[in-house]
Design a protein that fits this description.
The complex is a heterodimer. By secondary structure, chain A is mostly helical. In chain A, 71% of the residues lie in helices and 2% in strands. Chain A has helices at 2-14, 17-57, 79-83, 109-112, 114-119, 124-140, 145-150, 152-157, 163-195, 202-232, 236-265, 271-294, 305-350, 354-366, 371-395, 431-461; strands spanning 71-74, 94-97, 105-106. Chain A has a 3-stranded antiparallel beta sheet with strand order 1-2-3. Chain B has a 6-stranded mixed beta sheet, sandwiched between helices. The chains are: A mainly alpha, B alpha/beta.
Chain lengths: 466, 259
């Protein structure tokens, strides 16, 4: 019997004008998100390539590696970031690496093209978060109350149909009809990627698959919630109104409100405050260095007094930079820990909303979560060491720390070859780590599905059919 | 076609001291008793709030009785609702079916829901023709159907269920005279097949035309139950109005006898 109900539900849903209109809109947006994402990714790759070439071009003609003030490295565009933007457009994509010192990423996509920041990109995450949740509500709000209003529920339950079977069939039918439709649109979108020349690796396909799975779980939450609310009300207008309020709270209010709440509950020093403390400490150490520099007297440890002075200054710089690094590290860590505490509180509260869980899980899986900035910085720091070793080999010193080194000698200057520079490669967080990080939110979405399903099931068993 | 077993002489539809008091204290049905044997039709007349639909809701187990029992073919509906529902077909006042489905698709769905997977397209065509729905309408979506056409589909669904008992809740409401006449003829044929029919209605004339027994309800009480033959020559409308106004000499006695 459940098969009969599922079949009817699928045919009834798919045959309705409401479905045709909402599905056409959702499908168009999903395919559109893939198209826009692929186009954007190709553009980003071109820009990234141009920036790399420009970076090396600036070094052409230099005859001494000491004249290389910095080497810019770039966060390479990730295809999944074009589908699930997360914070990828907000974080700096460029780091000027010198041999030592703190690294700062700058040049975010939004800072370069602020117009996109006004309304953000139309990506897959946005489609899932806004469009699919509305799609689920529009097609589920009248699942039970609509049948009651229409009168078909009385006729159906006048047959020997157990209520449990009926509600199971209804939910299963709606889930199958709507999920297959959405997955069809996603599949078309996925096909667009290789067609448009965006090649995904196996891991990226796996990540995309998990993002879609998370999206379907989120879709399921709103679908089961709609059936639940519909089973608690007797008029479609009431269930629609309730769902609209829940949707606004869940998608619009809770995630934003929790960030504000957490901001009030946990105070984090601003970046400017930390920078001021660092600058003050740096000035203090410079004063000490200057005093030591004035006291310098060659004692013949090197054949050449200039060379001895260079070694002396180098050792002073090493000590000073190490103290600055230690001090900065401490300040950064303190700020980072406060931020982490604030973030944990905000996310814990925000997870009351399935919408927040979707955003967190999808961006984590796509590698565009808040950890992107940290991960890029860590990768850049690792590269800095490689770069410092290279420069030391080439020049005998590690550049940076505000010191300008000039080579004195009568050797014939030879142009440097920028291609010799070590290449920066960015490795996103491994799949197992991201899955582990997203597991809580995926689990929460699954839990919400079960919760609303159980709610719909028990509410319908007691539903007043009259 | 009929797989239901009926015991000769046993009523197929039976209310015994059927009472329903809601949680807010309103007494919707007050110790109502009646029975409908195979091949007979009981019409319950009454105004809004008389308790007619409550009675039907109790037979369909959409409500549980506070006292008494509703029985379909001997099965107490609130004790074994699914078994009872297998024995009864139901047609509501405003038959509403799935508007995106054609008449045949609606029939097919409800037939299969009732466990009948043996019907073929010809069976659906035959039953739709029997209830007076022209063949050109069989494959049209219900959204284009008039109320009368939907009513015919509802009756076709009830016929296809092939249950020994039929509950009709205001079935002639909104039907034009021709459709009303055809409906009464259909009821005759169903009665001749041995079906027991309980019909709640406002329509005094159709009740007199179709019923074997006529009952009058008001405020949840059964005021009168008489064989149609006893009412021959009597102005049923005047009688009904007198009962409603409480002016008839009979009501009190009738109510007592109904208990």
């Amino acid at each position: 019997m459940i098969g009969v109900i599922i079949e009817k539900e699928i045919r009834d849903l798919i045959g309705s004008t409401k479905f045709a209109v909402t599905f056409a809109a959702a499908a168009l947006l999903i395919v559109g998100a893939f198209y826009v994402g692929a186009t954007r990714h190709k553009l980003n790759v071109e820009q990234d390539e141009a920036s790399r070439v420009e970076n090396l071009r600036q070094m052409e003609g230099l005859t001494d590696w000491l004249r290389v003030e910095s080497n810019r490295i770039f966060l390479p565009p990730q295809p999944l970031a074009a589908l699930v933007s997360g914070v990828s457009n907000d974080v700096g994509r460029t780091v000027s690496v010198v041999g030592r010192g703190e690294l700062t990423a700058y040049g975010s996509r939004y800072s370069e093209d602020p117009i996109y920041a006004a309304f953000r990109f139309l990506d897959l995450e946005f489609i899932f978060q806004i469009v699919l949740s509305l799609f689920a509500i529009l097609l589920g709000f009248d699942a039970v109350s609509g049948e009651k209003e229409l009168g078909t529920l009385r006729l159906t339950l006048a047959h020997a149909v157990p209520r449990s079977t009926y509600i199971l069939g209804k939910i299963a039918g709606a889930c199958i009809a709507l999920s297959v439709s959405v997955l069809l649109a996603v599949a078309i979108g996925c096909l667009l990627l290789p067609v448009m020349g965006v090649a995904l690796t196996g891991t990226e396909w796996a990540r995309l698959g998990l993002v879609v799975l998370t999206g379907m779980l989120y879709f399921g939450v709103f679908l089961t919630m709609s059936v639940f609310v519909s089973s608690m009300t007797h008029r479609t207008s009431s269930s629609f109104l309730v769902l609209l309020v829940v949707w606004v709270m869940s998608v619009m209010v809770i995630p934003r409100a929790t960030v504000l709440l957490a901001g009030r509950a946990v105070a984090v020093p601003t970046a400017e405050e930390v920078a001021a403390q660092k600058a003050s400490y740096r000035i203090q150490l410079w004063k000490e260095t200057r005093a030591q520099m004035l006291d310098f007297k060659p004692n013949g440890t090197a054949p050449d007094p200039a060379q001895e002075f260079t070694q002396f200054m180098d050792s002073l710089t090493d000590v000073r930079e190490s103290r600055i690094a230690e001090h900065s590290g401490r300040l950064n860590e303190e700020r980072y820990n406060r931020q982490l505490e604030q973030q944990k509180l905000a996310f814990a509260l925000a997870r009351l909303s399935p919408s927040a869980s979707l955003a967190l899980a999808a961006s984590t899986l796509a590698g565009t979560s808040l950890s992107l900035a940290d991960h890029f910085k860590n990768e850049a720091a690792a590269y800095q060491q490689e770069y410092a070793a290279f420069m030391k080999e080439k020049t005998g010193v590690v550049p940076g720390a505000g010191m300008v080194m000039i080579r004195v000698g009568d050797e014939e200057p030879q142009p440097i070859d920028p291609a010799e520079l070590p290449e920066f490669t960015y490795d996103p967080l491994p799949l197992d780590k991201t899955v582990e990080a997203a597991a809580v939110d995926i689990g929460l979405l699954a839990f919400f599905n079960l919760l609303f399903f159980a709610g719909a099931f028990t509410a319908f068993l007691r539903y007043d059919v009259r | 076609m009929n797989n239901h077993t009926t015991i000769p002489g046993q009523p197929l539809i039976e209310a015994w001291q059927l009472t329903k008091r809601y949680e807010d204290g309103v007494l919707a049905l007050d110790h109502v008793s009646f029975s409908v044997e195979p091949g007979r039709l009981l019409a319950i007349l009454g105004g809004n709030g008389a308790g007619k639909t409550t009675t039907i809701n109790l037979f369909l187990n959409f409500l549980e009785p506070t006292e008494g029992e509703a029985r379909i073919n001997g099965i107490v509906t609130h004790k074994d609702p699914l078994a009872a529902k297998k024995q009864v077909a139901y047609v509501s006042e405003n038959v509403m079916l799935y508007l995106n489905f054609t008449a045949v698709q609606n029939l097919d769905y409800f037939a299969r829901l009732g466990g009948r997977t043996d019907y073929r397209r010809d069976d659906y065509r035959d039953v739709l023709l029997r209830v007076g729905l022209p063949e050109e309408a069989h494959n049209k979506k219900l959204k284009s159907f008039s109320k009368g056409m939907r009513q015919k589909c509802g009756i076709a669904i009830a016929i296809l269920k092939d249950a020994p008992a039929i509950l009709l809740d205001e079935p002639t409401s909104g039907l034009d005279p021709k459709a009303g006449r055809e409906f009464i003829q259909l009821l005759d044929s169903l009665r001749n097949e041995g079906k027991a029919i309980l019909m709640s209605t406002h329509d005094i004339f159709r009740a007199k035309e179709a019923a074997d027994t006529i009952a009058i309800m008001d405020n949840g009480r059964m005021l009168m139950q008489k064989e149609a033959s006893e009412l021959k020559g009597e102005d049923l409308e005047s009688l009904y109005m007198r009962y409603m106004a409480g002016h008839a000499a009979q009501p009190a006695a009738a109510a007592e006898s109904a208990r």
